[in-house]
Amino acid sequence: MDEAAVAALADELLDWRFKAVPADAHGRTVREWLATGPTLTGLGTPLLTLDATALDHNLRTMADWCAKAGVALAPHGKTTMAPALWQAQLAAGSHGITLANLPQIRVARAFGVQRILLANTLLDPAGLAWLAAELAADPEFAFVSWVDSTESVRLMDEALRAAGAERPVEVLVELGGPGGRTGARGVDAAAEIAAAVLRAPTLRLAGVGGYEGALAHDATDDGLATVRGYLKALAELHDRLAGTYPDDAPPIVSAGGSAYFDLVVEELADLPDTLTVLRSGAYIAHDDGFYRGVSPLVRGAGDAPFRGALHGWARVVSRPEPQLALLDAGKRDLPFDDGLPEPQRVRGGAELTGTSARITALNDQHAFLRDAGDLAPVGAVLRLGVSHPCTAFDKWTMIPVLDSADAPEPRVTGLVRTFF
């Protein structure tokens, strides 16, 4: 990665474009403002912050877990779209960065990411022409895409031929599942796609992949059994294609979000002469909702669970009814698609975890807090846990990093720049 490009983010001028940044930072660079020693008290609401202690713990925990399991990690960068966090993941030993679409790839290339796995199929002719030029200009750039139909193979090949591609694009044949998302439905269909790739001179068969998280959404026995069944089919496909892969590098088998990576290791890590690549991305921030409940590290797959590094901060602006308070953070500020924010504590006051206080709804700019009683008067600032980090980062272009969200007066030690 281009360390100088990431370091240069500290020279960005702060102003009204960044809603997390207070007015007294305007006109200063990130570096200059951080040098003033800002604290949480100086920041307004609504707000989303990251906890440096939790981030560091999550990075080390996942890196150690993958090393012990003998698998590579290409964390999904779409979770954060934050080059500084990608750099931290790569420095911790990650194999590369996974992304979801062409605009995200362009951000990664702007910051010098040299190994990218696209967990999607790239069919845009203009995008494929740009990719071909990137591959031709940089022999060290390693790129792998997905394909899930013979038609997508044909369209990619035609576009790359038209662009005069000099290097073949490496692809993984994507296996899906009934009711899931993309991916060939069945091993036989996937094998036909692999045969089409072998006939396309602009493509190179690099392995197989897919996403088990599209097939289950819980850790029940049925959910885990569904995931295992899918992973066994992925291993069967890989075995079917043995002997067709190029022999200058081990083939790739890639699966694994942040919910079932333990099962991926159990089913795929022992495949002979194969590079097993996890793509977990949410682990770096984790959460206090969906992932807290389903993570493998709370199901016995590790010694220390991940910690929630994301917190929302919102102020009580109205108490129109005895058991109703309105907060100044809503859908524009906090994730809500996979669980509502969780009241944790009143800043400088009462603990709310374990009480009857709860968020029952979000509007665009308000949260409905119910049953907090007298614990949350008008003007009180609440710390909120959030669920689903993938839809949290995209709402903020600058996210303050606190030394510890549990400290009496947290210090701002960094600003994470996102690019969505």
TrEMBL record:
Residues 309-403 form the D-serine dehydratase-like domain. The keyword Oxidoreductase does not apply. Keywords: Lyase. InterPro entries: Ala_racemase_N (IPR001608), D-amino_acid_metab_enzyme (IPR051466), D-ser_dehydrat-like_dom (IPR026956), D-ser_dehydrat-like_sf (IPR042208), PLP-binding_barrel (IPR029066). One of its GO terms (molecular function) is lyase activity. Belongs to the DSD1 family. This is Amino acid deaminase. It comes from Streptomyces kaniharaensis.
